[in-house]
Design a protein that fits this description.
With 225 residues, the chain is mostly helical. Helices cover 49% and strands 2% of the residues.
Amino acid sequence: MLRDKLAIFGALAAAGLIVLNACGNNKGPAASGGDGGAGSEDAGAGGGGGGVVADVCAKASAYDQQCGGNACMAAELADCAQIFGVFSSGYLSAIDACVSPPYQCTDGGMSSTDNLCMQSKLATLAPTLAQSKVKTDFCALCPDGQSARNPHACSSFFAVTDGGSSIGTAILELNDSVAEEVDQGCASGSHDSGIADCDVSFEICAATILEHTIVLPAACMTDAG
């Protein structure tokens, strides 16, 4: 399911937000979101600004130098701006604020204090217009009480709790382009997965999009990394 897939990309579960995996632990995709105004890609939550992307990539490079790298890490660092470019400025700013040296050379570079900081930052991210539209369209398809798996699927769409992250958290942490793709592909009235539970159907559809959001370098496509 989506929550399991996202765990290998950055541990969206509240207990383990590992944000340096994309450039450090060869694990694959993560997620991002937004905390600025619901406006431009550069200034708001909808897209990662170049400055904060550069800051996060600099930290990824420092992590590599401290903890020792390999071919996969080198290739990911070469593509770091592209990898983190799918994240919003709000999410990247949270990484920049919460993750500092010396890094943990396990757990993706994050300490328990870093994780708590990220939890706090993520809980205050405000959705952009594009992200809010995903929720609005999802709630039209899956109002509270309609999903047997998650009776509060609509009202808890963007919720972050100690028990983990909602499906909407992944949307909140990604840029507007990805949010729009999920909205059009998974939350429109034309989407029909053949699965009766609306929350499960949306989650599986979104997982297909999110797991292809980041294309890892060829050097990372082996078990050895």
